[in-house]
Design brief:
The structure holds 2 protein chains of 2 kinds. Chain A is α+β, with helices and mostly antiparallel strands. Chain A contains 30 helices and 23 strands. Chain A is flat. The longest helix of chain B is centred in the N-terminal third of the chain and has 17 residues. Classes of the chains: A alpha+beta, B alpha+beta. Chain A: Keywords: Nucleus, tRNA processing.
Amino acid sequence: MSAAKVKMRGKKMRNQPVSVQYPSSSAQNGGDTPNPERTKNPHQRGGWVRGHQKDGGGYTKEMPKHITAGSFASARAAEVQAMLTAVTKTTGSCHVYGALPKHMRRRSMSHNTKRLPRRLRDVANRMREKSLQAGSKKKKEQPKSKSRKARRRHGNLLLEFNRRQRKNMWLETHIWHAKRFHMVKKWGYCLGDRPTYKCYRACYRAMSSHCLLQDLSYYCCIELQGEEDKLLACLSLLTSKETGPTFAAALSLSGRRQGSVVLYRAGQYPSQPLGPVTFLWRPLVPVVIPAGVVLTPEPESEKTPEAQQVTGTKRKHSGKDASVPPAKKILGDGTRSPTTAVTWKSSSTGIVINDLTLELVRYRLIGPQSHSVLAETLEAATDCHEIDKSQSSPLWWPEHCKDENKMNLHQQQADVYHILKGIYSTGELPPGTVLGLTVDDPRVTLPTKKVKALPCVKQAQEVDEEKRKELMLQGVPEHCCQSYLWEQSVRDNVTDNKISEQQLNRMKSEVLVPGSRLSPIPLQGRVPILLVHQPGKQVGHEMSSWGAGWDLLLPKGWGMAFWVPLVYRGVRIGGLNMTLKHSQNKGVSHFPHDYPDCPAGVRFQEEQESELLDKFKRRPPAKRTNYIKHGCLAPFRCPWQQLAEEWELITREAESQTTTEADTVMEEKMTSRRDITVTKPQSHVTVLRNRKSLRLLSGWCKPTTSKGQRRCRVGEVPPLDRSAATSFLATHVMSLVWVRLSLLSKGKPEFHAMVCVPTAEDLQLLKKGSSSTGPQEPPHKDHFKSRIKRKKKGNKKTSTPALLPKTDSNESDLPSTSEPNPTTSKDPKSSSQSTSDLIFGLWPDPLPSVTSHCSRVTLGWVTQGDFSLSAGCGEALGFVSVAGLLNTFVNQPMEHRGTLLLRNPTSLHYRFAKINIEV
Amino acid sequence: MTEPRNPGMSSIPQAAPVHTDSTSPAVEMDPVEYTLRKRLPRKLPKRRNDVYVNMKTDFRAQLARCQKLLEGGGHREICVHGLGLAINRAINIALQLQASSQGVLQLAANTSTVELVDDLEPEDPDEAGEPMTRTRNNSAIHIKVFYPDPQ
């Protein structure tokens, strides 16, 4: 027997009772079988002696003379017992399949027991059940899920959808987006971030030459009702004339143009901004309603209490929770009423605030062809002649048809809309124009195939040239800005009476000639809409009117009915990241990103930091970027407050140095430092939004074209010298200013890149050859690395107390790279606690001086940076400290004024960049 | 127009101040009170052989583009358009084309006047009230560069 066979045999015999082992040869002489009945058989007596006899396999010759019955029987009983146990116990492998010879085994038997021979089936079934039970203990706890068919049944599907949007609300186009986009949960909504297909460049091209469509229904929309003067008085507290036109601007007050402002807490300007708002005054009606369309929910939650405070309103509803949708099972169409419009009324002024968020659907079309897309998709509503005029109808449109004035207005609006078709580019219109309109259901004219909407200027020739010119110069006449979308009753009527897709398709299929247009269009299909022109790029000197477009406002419930026809006109669809790119190219600050002084901006920054930090920590330490070595103090956030404070200190020093002697300055420095560290926290950093100051700054930084080739013409600017700078800084020391930086040579800035001041040598380098790519930062030393290592060791030994004094002594030489700064004194104290949360590659929390950490002085950071497809070079948007910027300008020679350095957090290479402040 | 960079955009800023300061005495304008915003010039549909010249793109690139159209593109004629400051460059391009073709190409120049629209936004919204819109004229040139017919 080979070793393997022995092993196998040992395994088989494992469970056999040792005492009853019979040799294999025993099969020949059945007499060995110890059956009690056979004992009577005479030649089986050998069996009475247990075990194999050594003598040649033969049996004892002599018969036993006698048998003691008692002992014999008990011995046999023991044997029987042993045999029975051996039989009941399974030997070897416990699988049923093991019982089958190999050639009869099939893999499928394991899950289909019917493939087994019948005799084994029961056992196999039993075993299978047992294993299933053991394996799926967790599964059992879950409710038994219905079949897919049942789950997909309409009612069940809606229930499921309602359940899924309890936490994060869905827009009406959610399903459409979810099939095509990477969705993110943001601001309490599920929003499409970017499409799953590659389309970054295609979307850019769509924005610059055709049309890009976005669903912006998540914007907060607030309606204020009240007397005009009272409203204006209240709203004027929230804004300031210094930042540009306010709510009271004449043109927007007439309702013909959309306006935009930045709101501040009541009477708090220039500190405590809340966020940007676009607004629209309802024209012509004594009750003036501006719909302040706040960009995202965060400012809204800030704004409403604020507005109440101003207007002296009291909430009718108990609290903010009132706006959370009640979790009722709605089995209706997709027009769930998520927010039962929350209303507050002021007792003193009579101003009513309505929250219309998600009551209106808002689509944005960006690009020069967006109006041709609109013109092709929407058709002005056809009136209903055949309807009996006396008969009253539950629908709103037949009622309107009876009124002569209303029909006249509609006719005029339709005329204006018709002229619009003759315009080649959206940018030719007056910015912010508003046009009210009533249109037919666009599903009726849905093309069978996707087509690309192109402008038809041929048609324009037919259009009266005079009228077109008037539209371009004057915009839409005032009365045409009126829309029935403003009226709650009409909105509700339209939403309630929408024909379902199914019904409409049935009607289409019943048309006599298949594929022909449905006519007459069912009366339910008249929708009031509001078209709001969005101005394109208005700042700067290049690419003006880039990214102009239209906003389409619809009553809720009609979202998909308009979305699909628009998509069928060959537009591209963009997500959140395209919104960001759009505003970046347009030179408009994007809401939470570029408002670091707003509560929402602060929150955004915190979220971003934790997100980036998590991502960073997920990498193994050896594969992480060591930001300490790169001299990057805060790669995941921008400590604006610290930056502004430090620059304020520096400017103060500079001032005092000019007046007093050096010794006293030192004294003063020490005291002032202490003062600042104690007193500063109450004055917060703000973003400079004063138009006049911005214009002055813009003139000082010598605006040029994007790559700095040519100077742009600016108006008269007072020359910049120390006194001018000082007087400017008197009001704006703690301010940041939003700037655009374009790289002079190659390079792609990333967010949180540092904006630095070039030294005189750097400028010499630039002067010598424009091909020079820029200076290098000497690599920094990571002092924390050894500490982390030691900490790890200490953890192993669990002898940390012995190490503590050492770390302190090490700490003293740590910030040698930077000059003495206010935070140094704090460092040793905090080091003992901070060792616990040291992360490899990042500075621990009390940061040393952010301005003087590197070899070049830091002015600020970049918030968004990318290769700009419109400028053809790397472009970055970011904030710099006003004090630092002016300080730099004063010290820079005239020919290099406005040249700064930019360095990515993951790189040691500085790149030259030109600064531009666009007003 | 398929191109984001169109002729008018970059040429206007250079040409404009002359107009705003001198040629419009009718509109009394205080530079502090109003902000001037220029709208895009009216665009017309563009054929493949239309070349709009601007001041932003490199001159050689524009010249190469025209040559490519005439030689590789198989067009018998192209139109070079220039507005305002870019008139000079348009003429330059046309002449260069002619010179490099050893006199085979012929030119036919047309001039025109393009009406441009400016928006004047008041600085102080509460006093000035209505923002103004006004039109001003700028010159344009359209040069047809073509191979003459064999006859």
